[in-house]
Amino acid sequence: MKDGKFLTLGIESSCDETAASVTADGRQVLSNIISSQIDIHTLFGGVVPEIASRKHLENIDKVINGALEEAGVSLDDIDLIGVTHGPGLIGALLVGVAAAKALAFAGDIPIVGVHHLHGHISANYIAAPDLEPPFTAVVVSGGNTDIVDVRDYNDLELLGASRDDAAGEAMDKIARVLGLGYPGGPKIDALAKQGNMHAIDFKRVTLEKGSYDFSFSGVKTHVINYVNTERQAGNELNNADIAASFQLSIMEVIAEKAVAAAKEYGRDKLALAGGVAANSLLRRLMEEACRANGIEFYRPEPVLCTDNAAMISCAAYYKFKAGHVDGLDLDAKPVLDFDRF
Amino acid sequence: MIILGIDTTGELSSSAVLTEDGKIYERHSDDRMNHLRDLIPMIRDTLGDAGVSLGDIGTIAVSAGPGSFTGIRIGMATAKGLALAQGLPLAGVPVLPGFAAGSPEGTLVCSMLDARRGRVYAGAYTSAEGAEAEGIRGIREIIPQGIYPAGEFVEKCLGMAADLSEIKSVEFFGNGVDRYSEEIASRLALGQADDDKAEEYGDYAARKRSYTVSFAPPERRYQSAAQTALAGRDMEPCHYSRVEAVYLGRTEAEKKLEAHELGVKKSKKAEEEEIMELPPEDEKITYRRATAEDAAAFAELDGACFAKGWSENSFTDELEADSCFVAAENEAGRVIGYGGVTYVAGEGEINRIAVDRMYRMRGIAGNILKICMEDAGNRGVTDITLEVRESNRSAIVLYKSFGFEVEGRRKNYYRETKENALIMWKRGSGDSDSPAEQAGSEKGKAGEE
Q: Which of A99, A162, A309, B138 has its CA 20 to 30 A from that of B41?
């Protein structure tokens, strides 16, 4: 406690960002330190697990100290530690969990393990101080495309998920095919702005009626085949048109399904989350669809969309307030069911 | 000062408290590979056993590797977290020399951890007052830590023991002992072979064994938090942010990254990477005459192999002088070893021979030396000299196998360490058959400036 506020230290290391953050009373961000490895992984066109794990270990103490310093607090002031314990790369996750447990033990501070997606959704609480459940959440990131019904802070139901490639994954692959590099999402987003999104009619896969699941491998293959065919025919490719059309084929389906879910479950609020939430087309489509259906639309600013620890800290705060505490035997789980809290 | 020891580099994790009067409290997990879940509760219980709290601890000693990459990171991240919270200094204990902490004098401690595919993370050490190995005081490095083929490492240990009169016993440590017990046994039998097989079997077989050989008993054989704490007591702990993991094996991806950061080779094309800890054993190494264009690659390798590397300019000078330099390349065309002989006034002088850490124990240094010697022979140069660090036993053994003899000693030649240099000469026609193929098993860390 400091100045009468409940302080939570959040730690996140599930993929390629090592992050730590201090929040006050769950939603007020005092510090949000992110050490990104994007520059390193750009060299390889994606995250290399062994390198990611090594970098996490090198950075973990620095980001924790950075978060405490920037917040102007010491470990003694911290009331709760929240840490991403899954899902993610196991070698990456365990660095954050081990450090968090050590701090919790040494400082005699309660610890709460947070599901990475729960964290992403919670970023909306930070961005919009007035947002309260229930609402529909859409998490779109490198590894996930999920529609979630958020009934309460700690009562979430997964309505649908990608059956194959996540949206971000498909974007990374297409970015590689077009020679744009890593991370694919922002590169495609930027290039698409110069192209005509109706130039090429890539297929949209909506799966069976009423399903909130996604499938992006079909459109991904379609784009790759298109590129190969055109190259073989000796035609000059318009990368901007390809990027724009491909992006539309993915984002349109996400926006449609998200709004359909909100309507079916009677939610008048819809919150976007995850790294791909920063995508300008997705934001525009969602905004339009929500407005047309009388739904209030929420989207955190980009720094809270990417992997960060403020969102983990916030999620941990609400879990703790609901009476949830983990033991010092907390483990990292590369695979973690979304509904398990 | 009370030391908290942590080890998660092996199959079983452990924690230990080493008290000021040398008493050790230790706990092991009874569950394999559940280090993350078990470690903190185990540390809590060990502190309880010792009747101390975390606040009583003066230093944390953590095994820094080599070992299971995942295990290393769990231990290190936990230790960093504890040190950060308590404001404690941290000693990152290298596991291989760590085995030698507290060992009796005259014992060659041979540490070997299974690195898969017939290889071991290994090194050999003795207790020696005033010496220091990888930051641990009181330990002398006899074979530097690295990745070696298991059988060759064992041979090398026995060879060293034969060479060093002060060695009375050889003791093998680590799970490599269990994994490669056959390789060890076969080499031990070999060590007792007849004198007339000496040529075939190498240097040490020619002598009667003047030392005993044993496997450390199971209770001492594997890395443990107690051993880590003991070794950590002989180290200078530092700020936790400066403690680094000892992986030894670098990933292919990392090598590319390093090359990129050094600006040597830019990997423009993004590609899916396969993690590899070691180059394949059957990778073909090619040897060629070096040119002045190799100077940059040599300087880079030199910096990685020697404490005081030669600059690119020094190499350019040497390469342009009357000399024969050899470059060893891997299949990717990267220079992974070099060596050379310079000719002055009708005599040859061997410069340095260096081999990339990842490619040692493959006979590369021997092959380079052989080519240099052949070049000298072709020029009719019969007298060749070199200087070598007195402690560089493996290099001395290599040179002896080529017919070099010690003729003199330069005191305190290596200024930084005040170490003597041995002056070795090979004189005469040089037509005695050099056992270069056998000697090829020696690590290539030879003459230093």
A: A309
Tokens of B116: 């898969």
Contact A56, A96 (CB under 8 A): yes
The answer to whether the CB atoms of B251 and A48 lie below 8 A apart is yes
CATH T-level assignment (fold) for domain B2-94+223-242: Nucleotidyltransferase; domain 5 (3.30.420)
Using the Cβ of A176 and the Cβ atoms of chain B, whether some distance falls under 8 Å is answered with yes
The burial class, CB within 10 Å (0-12 / 13-18 / 19+), for A141 is: buried
Closest to B173 measured CA to CA, from B219, B119, B225: B219
The CATH number of the domain covering residues in B286-439: 3.40.630.30
- Tallying the residues shown for chain B, one arrives at 449
Is the CB of B136 inside 8 Å of chain A's CB atoms? no
- Distance between A107 CA and the closest CA of chain B, angstroms: 7
Q: Average model confidence (pLDDT) for chain A? A: 92
As for the ipTM of the complex, it is 0.90
Q: What is the pLDDT of residues B322-375, one digit of tens each?
A: 889 999 998 878 888 999 998 877 788 898 888 887 787 778 888 999 999 988
pLDDT of residue B439: 36
Q: Do A328 and B44 lie within an 8 Å CB cutoff?
A: yes
Kindly report which listed range (B51-55, B72-76, B373-377) carries the lowest average pLDDT score. B373-377
The sheet with strand A155-161 has its strands ordered as A155-161, A145-152, A135-140, A269-273, A296-298
Q: Does B53 touch chain A (CB under 8 A)?
A: no
Q: Which residue has the higher pLDDT, B437 or A177?
A: A177
User: Around Cβ A252, how many Cβ atoms within 10 Å?
Assistant: 17
Q: Any CB–CB contact under 8 A between B345 and chain A?
A: no
Inspect the interface and report whether the beta carbons of A181 and B270 lie closer than 8 Å.
Answer: yes
Q: Tell me if chain B has a CB within 8 Å of the CB of A52.
A: no
Looking at the complex, report in whole angstroms how far the Cα of residue B113 sits from the nearest Cα belonging to chain A: 20
Q: CB within 8 A of B106, min separation 6: which ones?
A: B126, B166, B167, B168, B169
B432 pLDDT more than 50: no
Q: Which CATH class is domain B100-221?
A: alpha beta
Interface contact flag, A60 B80, Cβ < 8 Å: yes
Please state, in angstroms and rounded to a whole number, the distance separating the CA atoms of residues B266 and B257: 9
Is A332 touching B (CB cutoff 8 A)?
yes
Do residue B275 and residue A48 have CB atoms under 8 angstroms apart? yes
DSSP state of B421: E
pLDDT digits (tens, 9 = 90+) for B224-261: 999 999 999 999 999 999 999 998 866 555 565 555 55
Give A-chain residues touching B254 at CB under 8 angstroms: 50-51, 54
CATH 3.40.630.30, chain B: domain bounds: 286-439
CATH of the structural domain A7-123+305-321, one choice from 3.30.420.40, 3.90.550.10, 3.90.1150.10, 3.30.750.80: 3.30.420.40
Share of residues in chain B with pLDDT > 90 (%): 44
pLDDT of residue B300: 82
Q: Which residue does chain A place closest to B265, by CA atoms?
A: A43
Give CA–CA dist B401/B255, Å, rounded. Answer: 34
* Closest Cβ–Cβ partner in A99, A176, A329 for B80: A99
Q: A134-299 domain in CATH 3.30.420.40?
A: yes
* A272-331 confidence digits (pLDDT tens): 999 888 898 999 999 999 999 999 999 999 889 989 999 999 999 999 999 999 999 999
Domain boundaries, chain A: 7-123+305-321, 134-299
Question: Which residues of chain B neighbour A105 with C-beta distances below 8 Å?
Answer: 40, 43-44, 54, 82
Cβ within 8 Å, pair A45-B254: no
Q: Does A91 touch chain B (CB under 8 A)?
A: yes
Query: Over the range A165-185, which residues count as b (16 or more CB within 10 Å of their CB) and which as e?
Result: bbbbbbbbbbbbbbebebbbb
Q: Is the pLDDT of residue A46 over 70?
A: no
CA distance A127 to chain B (A): 30
